[in-house]
Specification:
It is a single chain. The protein has 2 domains: 313 residues, Aminopeptidase (3-Layer(aba) Sandwich); 119 residues, no CATH class. The model has no long low-confidence stretch (mean pLDDT 89). The strands form 4 sheets. An 8-stranded mixed sheet has the order 1-2-4-3-5-11-6-9, sandwiched between helices. Helix content is 50%, strand content 14%. The chain is α/β, with parallel strands linked by helices and 461 residues long. It has 15 helices and 14 strands. Strand 12 and strand 13 form a beta hairpin.
C-alpha cells in the first residue's frame, strides 16, 4: 500500500472547509479574468495554498488579447520522477459569483493540497493549479486561456507530466459525480479529435471506486449513450482539460453536473454558496483523491488511447471493440452466403462499410450499426428491425436535445462517414432468404414455366 493509500484511510477531504472556500470566492461577486476581483480571487487561493502547507506557491501572470490573467501554482514534492497535475479555475462568467463554477472545485483542490502537504511524499510530484481565464470564451476572448498559458509555461517540462485531473463544477446537492470524457479538436489532425485515454479513465474510475466515492462516466443515466454522443457531436461543454489534452497531456475532467442533472444556475447571478452542500463536496473530494491515488501510482505515462468504452465502470479497450465488430459480421454473412444472389451482395457491401467505420471510430459505429448488421442477417421481422434502428434514433435524439440546449453545434462525422453509416442502415432492410426457400421459389417458377410451355405446344381442336 502506497503512502497516498495510507492517507486515504487516515483522513478525508474536509467538505466544510471546501464550502467555506467556495463561499469566500463567491462573496467577491462576479470575478471574470482580468478584473480586479479576479486578481483578488487568485490572491485568496494563493494564500490558502500557503496556509495548507505548500511552500512554493507562485502567481504566474499571462496576457491574451490585452487582458492580463493570473494562475496560481504550488506543488507537493514526490519521491520519484514525474508530475501529476490537479487543478480547477478561480475565474467566473461575467454575471456569476461562481460558487459552483468553479468555487467548489477550487475548494476541493485547496483541501486536497492540505492533506498531501501533511503526508509522506507521494510517488510522484503533485502540482496543484488554480487557473484563470477558463471562462474567457463567455466574453469572446478565447478558450481556457489560463490553462493554455500554464502548459506553455511548463515548456519541455510538460513531457514529465504523466496525467492531470481537472475538477469542475462541484458541490451541488442535486448532482451526481461523473467523469466527462469529452472529445476535443485535435490540433495536429484537422477534423479529428482527442479524448481522455482509456488507461487514465480506467485508473481514475478504479481509484474513486476504491475510495468509496465512485464516478459515473458522462452521465448517471445516459452513460452508454453519452459515450458515442461525445464522439459523434462536437460538444460545447468543456473544462481546462481541453488545453492539456490538446498539448498532449493525458487529462480527465470530473464534475457533479451532467446532461440529465445540469446545474440550474449555470453562469447566472444565482450561482451562490447556498446551493452547495458540504457533504457533497466531501464526497466529490474523496472521488478526486481516490482517482489521484490511483493515477499517481501508474507505472509510466502511456500513449494515446482514444478508442475505448466504459461498461459498468470498467474500460473496454479498442482491441475488444474491434473484435466485437468482427463477431457481429459473421451471422449475417453466413446466412447470406447460403442464400447467394442479391442478399449476399448486399451483406458484403454492408460488411465492408461496417468494418471501415468500426476501424475508424469503433464506439459510435458499434453503437449505431452493430444491431442493424446483426438483425439484417438474423431476422426480417419489422419489430426486430425497429429495435435495431433504435440506438441510432436515440443517438440522434440526444444530439438534437444537446443542440437545443446549446451543448453542440456540429458533428465530428465527415460526409463520407455519414453516407457510409446511412448505407449500412439501409442495407439492413435488404432481406436474405434462406437457401431452401430460394430453391423452393426456383422450383415453383420452373414448374410454372414448363406447364405454360406444355400448354402452348398442345394441338388445338
Amino acid at each position: 500500500m502506497g503512502p497516498l493509500a495510507v492517507l486515504l484511510l487516515a483522513a478525508t477531504v474536509d467538505g466544510e472547509a471546501a464550502l467555506r472556500h467556495a463561499a469566500a470566492l463567491a462573496s467577491l461577486g462576479p470575478h471574470p479574468w482580468g478584473s480586479p476581483r479576479g486578481r483578488a480571487a487568485a490572491a485568496y487561493v494563493a494564500a490558502q495554498l500557503r496556509q495548507a502547507g505548500l511552500g512554493d506557491v507562485r502567481l504566474d501572470e499571462f496576457e491574451v488579447h490585452g487582458v492580463r490573467g493570473v494562475n496560481v501554482v504550488g506543488s507537493v514534492r514526490g519521491a520519484g520522477r514525474g508530475t501529476v497535475v490537479v487543478g480547477a479555475h478561480h475565474d467566473t462568467a461575467p454575471e456569476a459569483p461562481g460558487a459552483y463554477d468553479d468555487g467548489g472545485g477550487v475548494g476541493i483542490v485547496i483541501e486536497l493540497a492540505r492533506l498531501l502537504a501533511h503526508s509522506p511524499p507521494p510517488p510522484r510530484t503533485v502540482m496543484f493549479a488554480s487557473w484563470d481565464g477558463e471562462e474567457a470564451w463567455s466574453s469572446g476572448q478565447g478558450t481556457v486561456t489560463g490553462s493554455r498559458a500554464f502548459v506553455r509555461g511548463l515548456g519541455a517540462g510538460a513531457r514529465d507530466v504523466t496525467a492531470a485531473i481537472v475538477v469542475e463544477m462541484s458541490g451541488w446537492r442535486g448532482g451526481t459525480p461523473v467523469l466527462h470524457p469529452i472529445a476535443y479538436a485535435d490540433p495536429l489532425r484537422p477534423g479529428r479529435h482527442v479524448i481522455a485515454p482509456g488507461w487514465l479513465v480506467s485508473a481514475a474510475l478504479s481509484g474513486a471506486r476504491g475510495a468509496g466515492a465512485p464516478l459515473g462516466v458522462g452521465d448517471p443515466w445516459l452513460s452508454w449513450l453519452y459515450q458515442p454522443a461525445v464522439r459523434t457531436f462536437r460538444m460545447e461543454f468543456y473544462g481546462d482539460d481541453l488545453a492539456l489534452l490538446q498539448a498532449g497531456v493525458p487529462a480527465v475532467f470530473v464534475s457533479d453536473s451532467s446532461f440529465t442533472a445540469f446545474y440550474p444556475w449555470y453562469h447566472q447571478a444565482g450561482d451562490t454558496a447556498d446551493h452547495l452542500d458540504a457533504a457533497v463536496l466531501a464526497r466529490m473530494g474523496e472521488a478526486v483523491r481516490g482517482a489521484l491515488d490511483a493515477v499517481v501510482r501508474l507505472p509510466a505515462r502511456a500513449g494515446p488511447d482514444p478508442d475505448w468504452f466504459a461498461i459498468f465502470g470498467r474500460v473496454v479497450p479498442r482491441e475488444a471493440l474491434l473484435a466485437l465488430g468482427a463477431i457481429a459480421l459473421f451471422p449475417g454473412l453466413l446466412r447470406a452466403w447460403a442464400a447467394g444472389g442479391l442478399g449476399l451482395l448486399a451483406r458484403l457491401v454492408q460488411a465492408g462499410l461496417f468494418a471501415a467505420l468500426v476501424w475508424d471510430e469503433p464506439v459510435p459505429a458499434l453503437w449505431m450499426l452493430m444491431t442493424p448488421v446483426l438483425v439484417g442477417g438474423l431476422s426480417r421481422r419489422r419489430i426486430a428491425l425497429a429495435l435495431a434502428l433504435a440506438p441510432a434514433v436515440a443517438l440522434l435524439a440526444l444530439g438534437a436535445a444537446a443542440w437545443a440546449r446549446g451543448f453542440t453545434h456540429d458533428t465530428w462525422m465527415p460526409a463520407w462517414q455519414l453516407g457510409a453509416e446511412l448505407g449500412v442502415l439501409l442495407l439492413a432492410v435488404v432481406p436474405v432468404a434462406r437457401a431452401q426457400k430460394v430453391r423452393a421459389i426456383r422450383r415453383d417458377v420452373e414448374t410454372t414455366l414448363r406447364r405454360r410451355a406444355a400448354g402452348v405446344q398442345r394441338p388445338t381442336r
